[in-house]
């Protein structure tokens, strides 16, 4: 295994603005249209200072029509095109839309379910529940879904997202109120999707996926903000379930297909880019509009998926615990996307602008009062769900006005990787990660042979640090800390 | 090809997999890249060349052709459970590749699955000839 030194620090100085903000000045790299801004503390910044992430923040600033700033959240790590943790907004009129600004796993996201149960009621049964979930929820590489689809169903899923799933009997209408975008982006077009994407997506509908995707039984370890926690329906020692999953092979194929389209578009529209993976087209062009419509379809696919996964989770819990739905009291707190592009209105220098906001490994974090925040939470702000890694913590945060002002209403999405998969496997050699986690009271079932090693806690930044940065920077606020009890992974 | 030279190697990237492959011709380098990619997904032992697939891809330049080639193989794996074993390039220029690939159909009782490659990206993509030897580089989303 060779360590690659092909992408080191470019010339130019990063300016530290305050304890949590680092500016990449516009002259850092010729061609930048706006400066870059990285949210990090000293330690996190030192970790990325010499890797390609910083240059990727600078490269994103080349995108035509980019507004104000090229952003990166503290879970920043090197991706391709935008860094992971990147947020860029372009003007809808003149600016571009870029598949690389979303990523391959369109609408990879998280949902959090609450229950009425106390952790003590669940603790003795965790192993049994995890095994039952593992048996019922299709998980891992090559897993095939349980749902039988007609061609009509397929188009329904892509056009209606989670709404399709609810109409088909997977869950309740109220669930849609507590899903970002109501679990459906209007304007998805099944006709601009390739047959390859359909072929990949068909057998994978309702599957959890692999890698860092998971379904986790948790408990609320700590409440930081009583008022907001209460509005979200959270209490200490409550049992919760978190589902982290995306659009599977369907989204990947959509991204792959449109990167090819955009490669041609870049030449056609005379766009000059430092990284091919930033390939884009004006939103107003046919290529741009088609990608947006295809991306929406993939996003809807993922929302339908998470809705189904939630339904099966509830069925397994009811079956195993032998309690009534009322006693279980399971309901959806919220569902967020963290790889997505949305058309949103934001104030930029006092002016209302309609923007194409790309979040690649970043979460929307809208403030109190925003019309898109569900009525039940409007007084306190939008729930932000931050999955950590196995063995450590996940967090619930809430959106803030400061995020609206500084980051187009965005915050981090989780704990970025610090070790490559190979490094993690090497570091885990000889260790029984399964056992280490069990010693901590966490029971894990995985489908992949190397998954546990690749995904071991030390392979990730400490999510606590990442959350500290966004909290202290004021772009979202800590509400609760969740600890894993049992996990299923691909 | 010498037994000791697999024709490919990996380089470290934080969240993805960097792959370099080489060969005496562009086609051979492309074949080694495919072998490298599948090496990440399944143990080559136990794979039998039982089925034939004819592959045809086109692209605007040779770098994009490499991505198109790998993407097509990924698609065949995901949708048909097809695992390539032997490759034979029928036609190749900078914008078009035609190949006959013999491979196996995924059978969990015979095959040892590793991870999953989700896509071949355009990031740091290279296809070049250096001193008569061909070298390619591609970053795989895993």
In short:
The complex is a heterodimer of chains A (490) and B (142). Chain A is of the alpha+beta class. Chain A has 17 helices and 19 strands.
Structure write-up:
The complex is a heterodimer of chains A (490) and B (142). Chain A has 490 residues and is α+β, with helices and mostly antiparallel strands. Chain A has 17 helices and 19 strands. In chain A, the strands form 4 sheets. In chain A, strands 7, 8, 9, 11, 15, 16, 18 and 19 form an 8-stranded mixed beta sheet that branches. A 7-stranded mixed beta sheet of chain A has the order 1-2-3-4-5-13-12, sandwiched between helices. In chain A, strands 6-10 form a two-stranded antiparallel ribbon. In chain A, helix 4 packs across helix 11 and helix 5 crosses helix 11. The longest helix of chain A is centred in the middle third of the chain and has 36 residues. The two termini of chain A are 25 Å apart. By secondary structure, chain B is an alpha+beta fold. In chain B, strands 1, 2, 6, 7 and 8 form a 5-stranded antiparallel beta sheet that branches. A 3-stranded antiparallel beta sheet of chain B has the order 3-5-4, covered by helices on one side. The longest helix of chain B has 19 residues. Chain B contains 2 helices and 8 strands. The model of chain B has no long low-confidence stretch (mean pLDDT 92). In chain B, helix 1 runs parallel beside helix 2. In chain B, 47% of the residues are buried. Classes of the chains: A alpha+beta (490), B alpha+beta (142). Chains A and B meet through strand 4, helix 8, helix 10 and helix 14 of A and strand 1, strand 2, helix 2 and strand 6 of B.
């Amino acid at each position: 295994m060779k360590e690659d030194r092909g992408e080191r620090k470019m010339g130019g100085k990063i300016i530290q603005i305050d304890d949590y903000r680092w500016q990449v000045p516009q002259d850092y790299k010729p061609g930048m249209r706006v400066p870059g801004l990285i949210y990090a503390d000293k330690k996190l910044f030192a970790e990325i200072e010499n890797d390609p992430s910083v240059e990727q923040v600078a490269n994103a600033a080349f995108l035509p029509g980019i507004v104000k700033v090229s952003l990166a959240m503290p879970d920043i790590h090197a991706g391709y095109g935008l860094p992971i943790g990147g947020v860029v907004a372009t003007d809808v009129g003149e600016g571009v839309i870029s598949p690389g600004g979303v990523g391959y796993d369109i609408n990879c996201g998280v949902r959090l379910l609450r229950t009425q149960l106390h952790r003590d009621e669940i603790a003795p049964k965790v192993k049994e529940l995890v095994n039952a979930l593992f048996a019922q929820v299709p998980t891992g590489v090559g897993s095939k879904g349980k749902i039988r689809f007609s061609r009509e169903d397929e188009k329904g899923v892509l056009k209606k997202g989670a709404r399709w799933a609810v109409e088909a009997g997977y869950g309740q209408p109220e669930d849609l109120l507590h899903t970002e975008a109501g679990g459906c982006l209007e304007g998805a077009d099944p006709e601009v999707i390739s047959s390859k994407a359909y072929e990949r997506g068909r057998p994978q509908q309702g599957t959890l996926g692999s890698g860092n995707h998971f379904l986790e039984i948790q408990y609320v370890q700590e409440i930081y903000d009583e008022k907001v926690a209460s509005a979200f329906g959270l209490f200490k020692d409550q049992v919760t379930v978190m589902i982290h999953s995306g659009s599977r092979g369907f989204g990947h194929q959509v991204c792959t297909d449109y990167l090819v389209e955009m490669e041609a578009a870049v030449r056609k529209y005379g766009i000059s880019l430092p990284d091919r993976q930033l390939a884009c087209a004006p939103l107003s062009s046919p290529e741009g509009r088609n990608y947006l419509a295809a991306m929406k379809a993939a996003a809807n696919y993922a929302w339908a998926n998470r809705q189904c996964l939630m339904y099966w989770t509830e069925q397994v819990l009811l079956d195993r615990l032998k309690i009534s739905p009322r006693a279980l009291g399971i309901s959806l707190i919220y569902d967020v996307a963290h790889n997505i592009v949305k058309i949103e209105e934001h104030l930029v220098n006092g002016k209302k602008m309609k923007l194409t906001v790309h979040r690649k490994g970043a979460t929307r974090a809208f403030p109190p009062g925003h019309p898109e925040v569900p009525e039940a939470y409007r007084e306190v702000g939008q729930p932000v769900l931050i999955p950590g890694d196995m063995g450590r913590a996940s967090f619930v945060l809430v959106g803030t006005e400061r995020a609206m002002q500084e980051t187009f209403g965005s915050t981090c999405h989780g704990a970025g990787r610090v070790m490559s998969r190979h490094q993690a496997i090497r570091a885990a050699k000889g260790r029984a990660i399964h056992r280490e986690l069990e010693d901590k009271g966490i029971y894990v079932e995985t489908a992949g042979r190397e998954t546990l090693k690749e995904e071991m806690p030390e392979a990730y930044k400490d999510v606590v640090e990442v959350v500290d940065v966004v909290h202290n920077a004021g772009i979202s606020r800590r509400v609760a800390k969740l600890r894993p009890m049992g996990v299923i992974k691909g | 090809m010498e037994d000791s030279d697999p024709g490919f190697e990996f380089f470290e990237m934080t969240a993805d997999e960097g792959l370099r492959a080489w060969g005496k011709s562009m086609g051979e380098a492309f074949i080694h890249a495919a072998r490298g990619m599948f090496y990440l997904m399944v143990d080559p032992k136990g794979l039998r060349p039982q089925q034939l697939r004819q592959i045809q891809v086109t692209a605007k330049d040779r770098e994009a052709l490499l991505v198109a080639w790998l993407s097509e193989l990924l698609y065949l794996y995901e949708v048909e459970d097809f695992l390539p074993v032997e490759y034979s390039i029928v036609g190749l220029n900078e914008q078009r590749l035609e190949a006959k690939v013999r491979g196996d159909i995924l059978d969990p009782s015979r095959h040892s699955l590793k991870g999953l490659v989700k896509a071949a990206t355009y990031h740091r993509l290279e296809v070049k000839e250096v001193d008569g030897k061909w070298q390619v580089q591609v970053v795989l989303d895993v």
